[in-house]
Write a structure and sequence with these properties.
The protein is an alpha/beta fold. The protein has a single domain, classed as Amidase signature (AS) domain (Amidase signature (AS) enzymes), CATH 3.90.1300.10. The protein contains 15 helices and 11 strands. Helix 2 runs antiparallel to helix 3. The radius of gyration is 21 Å and the shape is globular.
Length: about 500
């Protein structure tokens, strides 16, 4: 049996019944990565020795009869912008190519406490800035369903690793769609939690008021298990929500009867691929047939979300990335004086997209432009949040596309930044409002996965998972693994 093909909850049951060992599970996943990662390129850093050592500790705990968590012994991956003590954290940037953190992120600590096995650090767009993983400072990750296409971004390595069987689950970060887009393009489940539901301590910042860590998984139950393991209040994160963490698996089988589903008309944008729109509308019809009630809603400020995001996110990036000066840590360039050293360090260390966003943000924050751009964007952000508040006064969840199209070809949008930014048009509003949103496979077009977006009010992750699970059980999308030619 190829253990890497199974879900976390299936492996958990086999592990608890002593039908397999954690070491055997981990060996299967590592062997799969040995055979396919040269093609997919999901990982920046792989940690096979540490993974096997952790798996062995789990087996020893089970042999002693000790209680372990649902993720114990189950191999997963972390996006390489999450700090791991003693293991490189590069953010896919040359400026941090050799950075080894002296501490763990909170999520890293939580996963260690859950006895999870970490098999490596996944590739991303540099500093999480991008929608295709083409902006990585090292290499492009490929979509397991079609290796000529992108896996989405910025958490493309995390999404591709799960879709390719190189990890059973993974973590990404979502600033404007960076979990949901790779989940949709790679045909897996991805969830951006409520802002503050998962601690950002130890997540290398891009845009601090937007960034949020969340899980990728093969199915909804696995997604719920991982979310439960990483959620919770953290005093080291001033934006962390101090609220109890529910059992996210408890409501999965509750169905959708009586739930009100909102259809936001502004999310069905001009130019949307017909197969994508048809799949979303067909999925909504199925949920209505299962007992949900459909309500059409309007969110009029959605049209301003893209511009608002690219002012706020770049302004925050300009502030956050000011620390990379070649002095304290990271790449240092040669220079005749300190100013030329700063310039050389940043020019050599940052890629074109990161430089572009820093310049945009610095301009928006500059004297004479702050009120006209950044302050106005903050006001529009409030209007966008109010759109969500009004919508959730009428419905329990919203359903919309994740992206206007399926995965595009590598290189197709590289020379047109605006076209690349438009890929996130359906995902950005949820980040601006801080509400949770989930991507769920809902069909295929020409062999490429299509993702459906389920959005809810703050701290409604359990409801999103409930709706997603109900839909998932009527289909077999979560049972399909991308076919990849293995290398001996």
């Amino acid at each position: 049996m190829d253990l890497f093909r199974l879900k976390a909850h299936e492996l958990q049951q086999k592990l608890f019944r002593r039908e397999v060992s954690a070491v055997e599970i981990t060996q299967s996943v590592l062997a799969r990565a040995d055979k396919v990662d040269s093609t997919i390129q999901s990982f920046i850093t792989r940690t096979p020795e540490a993974a096997l050592a952790q798996a062995k500790r789990v087996d020893e705990k089970l042999a002693r009869g000790e209680a372990v968590s649902p993720l114990a012994g189950i191999p997963g991956a972390l996006k390489d912008n999450m700090c791991t003590k003693g293991v490189k954290t590069t953010c896919a940037s040359k400026i941090l190519a050799n950075f080894v953190p002296p501490y763990d992120a909170t999520i890293t600590e939580k996963l260690a406490a859950a006895d999870a096995v970490i098999v490596g650090k996944a590739n991303l767009d540099e500093f999480a800035m991008g929608s295709s993983t083409e902006n990585s400072g090292f290499f492009v990750t490929r979509n397991p369903w079609d290796t000529d296409r992108v896996p989405g971004g910025s958490s493309g390595g995390s999404g591709a690793a799960v879709a390719a069987g190189e990890a059973i689950w993974s973590l990404g970060s979502d600033t404007g769609g960076s979990i949901r887009l790779p989940a949709a393009y790679c045909g897996v489940v991805g969830l951006k939690p409520t802002y503050g539901r998962v601690s950002r301590y130890g997540l290398v910042a891009y845009a601090s008021s937007l960034d949020q860590i969340g899980p990728f998984a093969r199915d909804v139950r696995d997604c719920a298990l991982v979310l439960g393991a990483i959620s919770g209040h953290d005093r080291r994160d001033s934006t962390s929500i101090n609220a109890p963490v529910p059992d996210y698996t408890a409501k999965l089988e509750s169905g959708v009867k009586g739930l009100k589903i909102g259809l936001p008309r502004e999310y069905f944008v001009a130019g949307m691929q017909p197969e994508v729109e048809a799949a979303i509308r067909r999925s909504i019809d199925e949920l209505v047939a299962m007992g949900a009630e459909l309500v059409e809603v309007s969110m009029p400020h959605t049209q301003y979300a893209l511009a608002t995001y690219y002012l706020i996110a770049t302004a925050e990036a300009s502030s956050n990335l000011g620390r990379y000066d070649g002095v304290g840590f990271g790449h240092r360039g040669e220079g005749s004086d300190i100013v030329s050293m700063y310039k050389r360090s940043r020019a050599e260390g940052f890629g074109p997209e990161v430089q572009r966003r820093i310049m945009l943000g610095t301009y928006a924050l500059s004297s004479g432009y702050y009120d006209a751009y950044y302050l106005k964007a903050l006001k529009v952000r409030t209007l966008i949040k109010q759109d969500f508040d009004r919508a959730f006064g009428q419905v329990d969840v919203l359903i919309a596309p994740i992206a206007p199209t399926t995965a595009f070809k590598i290189g197709e949008k590289v020379e047109d930044p605006l076209a690349m930014y438009l890929v996130d048009v359906c995902t950005i509003p949820s980040n601006l409002a801080g509400v949770p949103a989930l991507s769920l496979p809902c069909g295929f077009a020409d062999g490429l996965p299509i993702g459906m977006q389920i959005i809810g009010p703050h701290l409604s992750e359990a409801t999103l998972l409930q709706v997603a699970y109900t839909f998932e059980q009527a289909h077999d999308y979560h049972k399909q693994l991308a076919a990849i030619r293995e290398v001996d």
